[in-house]
Amino acid sequence: MLKLVLTGVWVCAVTLGSVYFSMQYASAPVMSEADADRRASEEYIPGEIITVPVIKEGAVQGYFLAKLSFSATKEGIAKLHAPLRQVVTDELYDMLVGSKFVDLADTGSFDLPTFKVAVKDGLNKKLGNEVITEVLVEQLEYLTKDDVERVANSQNRPYQKPVPVVDKNGNVAADKIPEGAVKATSSSH
């Protein structure tokens, strides 16, 4: 018993020592003064989920779901004539409705870095100034029209009859309870 207690104390001492020394030698990443000034002049703007229809050949082919957040200059945000979230939503609709960002034939060709740069450039062009400094993607999904219909129809699925259980002799065992289950149930009471 004494060996077990001493082993526990030894393990605790080693653990605490390793945590202490790792904290002593760990250091925060060094940020240059220019980076610190830039970060102090920026503000994080959380995004909201928007659903943009993907239109091809005059019909809706699917839906592009996006939740984008932004890093923007405080000075630029103060000069805006409309709230940034509404401007972002408007620009994303302008960019994505009827665009080639989502190719239905080859969804694997989507280029996220290009998309982020295009959103940033499009927003800054619309705002008339370098307001957006970074685009952060929180959620990005594409649902085909068939995916949406499949989910919608699964809630209205008609009741399906249960499949009967057949025992090894080919008899339908719908009303039979195996003997082992009865004994196990009755013995537990």
UniProtKB/TrEMBL annotation:
Residues 153-172 are annotated as: Disordered. This is Type I restriction-modification system methyltransferase subunit. It comes from Sinorhizobium garamanticum.
